[in-house]
Amino acid sequence: MTTASAWSVALLGMTGTLVEVEAAIAPGLPRTVLVGLPDAALYEARDRCRAAIAGAGLNWPSQLLTINLTPASLPKAGSHYDLAIVSAVLACAGAVPRQILAGAVLAGELGLDGRVRPVRGILPTLLTAREAGFSTAVVPAGQVGEARLVSGLTVWGVGNLAELVEVLHGRPVLATSDAVTGDTPEPAGAPDLADVRGQPEACWAVEVAAAGGHHIFLHGAPGVGKSMLAARLPGLLPELSDAHALEVSALHSLAGEPLASGLIRRPPYVNPHHNASVAAMVGGGSRMARPGAISLAHRGVLFLDEAPEFSGRVLEALRTPLETGEVLIARSASQVRYPARFQLVLAANPCPCGRGGSPAGQCTCAPMALRRYRERLSGPVMDRIDIHHRMLPNLRALAETYGGEASAVVAGRVGQARSRARRRLRDTPWQLNAEVPGHQLRKLSAIHGTDLLDEAVRTGRLSARGVDKVIRIAWTLADLAGRDRIARADLAAALGLRQDCWGSAP
């Protein structure tokens, strides 16, 4: 019996596990056996690999061929094992040497004509390989740029099976995709906060949200500027650090988004449609759970326009990620954990017809219809939103030629406030005021004006969670003002930003 092996990676969420692909040729009737808990796509790999080898003018073993994926107890899914399978088979048949396969990780899908197609998750796959001590990676030619974002690895790109054979003989071909070591460029024509007219209070509320990483709820008549403000929030946030950029880029690589232009440096902005399912929002899948919208918005902004139109199950599914900053997708065979630390922006009209509180006309909604509309945003969900702001039309300001401050100016103040918060929290695992737990908030400094909080709790305006959120907002206001402690005015302003106007809106 002749044996050979190659290496690939099984991804379970963001976590990768090395998989040894073993091939053994033994006397017996010609057939191919694939074992090691493969899914349907992986089980079909034997047919793809056989056709690709025939197309390259090579011979598939005419004896009993057994392909084993180790560890056998780990479920394996996807088509990225094709390169490792065909390499192990060719090495077992003596068509290619085995030296390179011992220190290389392979990932790529084969076409029937021998072409190597792109696959999901190249970035987390190679991060796992580097941590395991591998020095070489063989990937599809079109993903060489993404692969070379992982430093410390020699990356060989192959466009077809013939090029793979050359690489395994130690004769690497020229890559068809150049390496990219830079970052994703700033998109041209990014929306600017100066485009917003007649909403200075709302712009200020968005600035506070950006400075502290707070969730925000905007409600008002249609066309008042809720979507405009949400789209401009990412422009107020600073660029991602190296560690965060790598984490965000790995998530988007798992989702199948190309990274040929470099690491994602700008905070992502995700705006799902209101008919999105729970799986589309939080992640899921029949066999391999993929990241959902909340994970793709990690370290960025998740905007839910017309929030009451979203399914109640979708909105309630946000409760745990809003508190923990991650989502756990449980299946009978495995559990997948994805990071989901995002800023949530909710937008809603005052009523189903949209004319409530608008000078355009009188609301025609029946009281029961209005009640059902507002009840779609449950109390527990709304209690997790830091800032509540009601937007009213300002017809005089809309006629002004010039808008407010530009995003670059506001982003400068946001950056200074965040730097102040990081210095205060430098000995803690948190970086933003919105991340600090309640028990730690009271240890940072003495708080003046706690009688305001006592009165709000006594009258039912605040819950225990709401008290912590008011203090977090007050810390952000102090950071924006350049103060080292919370003043009474900060608490008063934070209570105003926290005031729930949703239930009492006309």
Descriptive report:
The protein has 506 residues and is α/β, with parallel strands linked by helices. It has 2 domains: 2-168, Ribosomal Protein S5, domain 2 (2-Layer Sandwich); 193-498, P-loop containing nucleotide triphosphate hydrolases (Rossmann fold). The protein has 21 helices and 18 strands. The strands form 6 sheets. It has a 5-stranded parallel β-sheet with strand order 11-14-17-10-18. Helix 5 (144-147) links the parallel strand 8 and strand 9. Helix 2 crosses helix 3 (82-92) and helix 17 (407-424) packs across helix 20. The longest helix has 18 residues, at 407-424. It is elongated. It starts with a strand and ends in an 8-residue tail after the last helix. The model has no long low-confidence stretch (mean pLDDT 89).
Percent range for helical residues? 25-40%
Radius of gyration: 27 Å
Please report the number of helical segments.
21
CATH topology of the largest domain: Rossmann fold
Principal-axis shape: elongated
Structure classification: alpha/beta
Roughly what fraction of the amino acids lie in strands?
15-25%
- Number of separate domains: 2
- Strand tally is 18
Strand order of the largest sheet: 11-14-17-10-18
Major β-sheet annotation: 5 strands, parallel
Span between termini: 80 Å
> Which whole number gives the mean pLDDT?
89
CATH superfamily of the largest domain: P-loop containing nucleotide triphosphate hydrolases
Given this structure, which CATH class of the largest domain is correct?
Alpha Beta
Q: Write the CATH architecture name of the largest domain.
A: 3-Layer(aba) Sandwich
Which assembly state applies to the chains in this document?
Answer: single chain
Low-confidence stretches: none
